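job 3f2a | input accepted
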Amino acid sequence: MTALFSPLALGGMELPNRIAVSPMAQYSSAPDGCASDWHLVHLGQLSYSGAGLVMTEATAVEPDGRGSLQCLGLYGDAQEQALGRVVDFCRQWGGARLGVQLSHTGRKGSVRLPWAGRGPLPVEEGGWHVEAPSALAADDGGPVPAELDEAGLRRIGQAFVSAARRAVRVGFDVVELHAAHGYLLHQFLSPLSNRRDDGYGGDAGRRMRFPLEVAQAVRAAIPSDRAMGVRISASDWAEGGFGLDEAVAFAGALKSIGCDYVCVSSGGLVGHQQIRVVPEYQVPFASEVRQRTGMATRAVGMIAQAQQADAIVRSGRADFVALGRAMLDDPRWGWHAAEVLGAAVVYPKPYTRAASAAWPGARLVRPGAA
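job 3f2a | predicted structure (370 res):
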């Protein structure tokens, strides 16, 4: 048994191994937030990739919480039904646990598709006026958001709770909140985007208040046999921004209200960030949060090789790892990693002949696994 392929208990549930498919924005084929055949194929194939957990992309809790007009949502019956079809398929054919990442983009919403320039989407083209903790644009020259009042905070908080309840009905095993990458909950956490002078701004404790209120309400709304996690940021990679010490304090507060794990990421808040992207560049953040809080952590960021992922878990730097680009490049990454590490994974019955034991002496070169 390798570390990477050992089971992991998260709250009242268990993952079959320590490999997760990272939430990956698709910006595609989700009119009015409704999952389509694209999501059926995309998430369906990843559900039998050999990963122990497959996460949806950031899934908006209200229409104005989407990034683009084609981003996924879970804010109404139509969205619930469409996503339920995808979950049912994954459950029937795949062996992975399934998670949804609930999100609100705040000031980063209402944008064009990445391959169409990613700039602000005007209202006359279907865009919307964005909201944020403070009336501060994400980038120089970008749209200035409206500052959320207490009624707006209550509305969004309830939207997270409602989406979490829908996620439970759909059948997700894991509900994760997105509090990183410059999205709304992260915007509250960082002093670069939160300049409020009320109870939701100022020192670190007050900046954490709204994200913690949302997390506590969501935890209360989902049963104990479903795990709850939060993706957090450990650095804004910009002077005066949210940093590791505050991330540790936030993770500790999340643990105290019943959160089962944190996924430790970074960046995405401001355009002037200075990130040096190298393999495992975010793993030290996850390791520090884990050591200082005792909380289960998921590491992300340029993790691509089987031995690399196994070493991260075996060394105690993180409890599990999430892969994005590597899974897009090789949707059977888990199968191939199991071959390299001498572990076993569940194959869908029609694909059992693909197992290396079924055709000895015919091993292929496995990109992303060697």
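job 3f2a | The two ends are 18 Å apart (CA to CA).
job 3f2a | closed
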